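haha ok so turns out i had the wrong file open the whole time. this is the CORRECT one, sorry everyone. sequence first:
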Amino acid sequence: MNRVAVLGSGPGAHATAADLTLMGNLVNMYDLPQFADGLKKTREAGQIELTGAKAGVARINLVTDNIEEALKDVSVIFVVARSNADHLFAESCAPYLQDGQLVVLGAGNCGALTFANVLKEKKINKEVVIAESTSLPYGCRLCEPTRIGGPVHARVYFTAPLAVGVFPAIRTDDIISRIKEFYSETVAMNNVIEAGLQNPNPIVHCAPTLLNIGRIERVDDFKLFHEGFSESVIKVVLAISSEREEVCKAFGWKMLNLTPQKTTNFMDWAFSGTEPRQGTEELWMLKQPMEDVSKARYITEDIPYGMVTYSSLGNMVGVKTRTIDSMIQLASVINRTDYMTEGRTVERLGLTGLNVKQINDFLFHGS
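then structure:
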């Protein structure tokens, strides 16, 4: 039995905490004070119910707003939250990390280096390894309880294997073995940036949201993957994917799924068996008030922590990212925010002034 912590309070964090508990682990849940309301019902009930691809009622070991308490004597810390919280979680965790602990960021978007940079700035000299996965192992949403007064309910629509990068990458073999204790189908990426660049969300979220925003703002709900992917939008999505692929190639990194040449096989390529048109309407629907769609994470997370990173890395090695840059510009105008300046750039990743070889050496050795 492992003792682990899950940091976050969204659908992914609840699915992770419940599934890990049902596997036989002792799980502590925590979220930052400004988001702690997301765990209020979980703390009151002490349980999470999973339905769908994962099913069962999990009694959570501890739900707390005390980070020291959450991290004490756990072997693995799963950070399952939006990328804009990576820096905040790193600062919160830093004083209480213990030797031998592993931090795993879900859908990290290169956040492992953000976490590592905070520890370096704070001079935390603990024997801690940081990893990140390309995406979460669950496609899930929080739903109404299955019965009146029942526990928090997370519906899992599909599961997927993890692809994980490790920092420093020299520790990859033993860290992947540790993660396989929880997720047996985990595969290793060469490093944390290669892993971060595999995240499918910026590719399939940004263009259909931005290019359909006029329609989205005028309806009560919008089924993004049912309505948003016309032939023209798919062409833009594939152009974005091709540009990201060229960035990876310039650094000697691989892509798990190469961009198809034709639009006709787009759905098979993008969703690999988790076809969104079959029984997953809730998962793929934009439900927030439509006048606020510009503040949806499909823009406010996937642009600054996805598109901006691709563009910044591309600029570093002379790869043009015109379509990606157009998405950043549109989002910046709509939200009156300079995402190219505020997003996750090579400067914020701590890679300024390094060439390709130096970056790969740093990712491998950690220094």
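The longest strand covers residues 152-159.
again sry for the mixup
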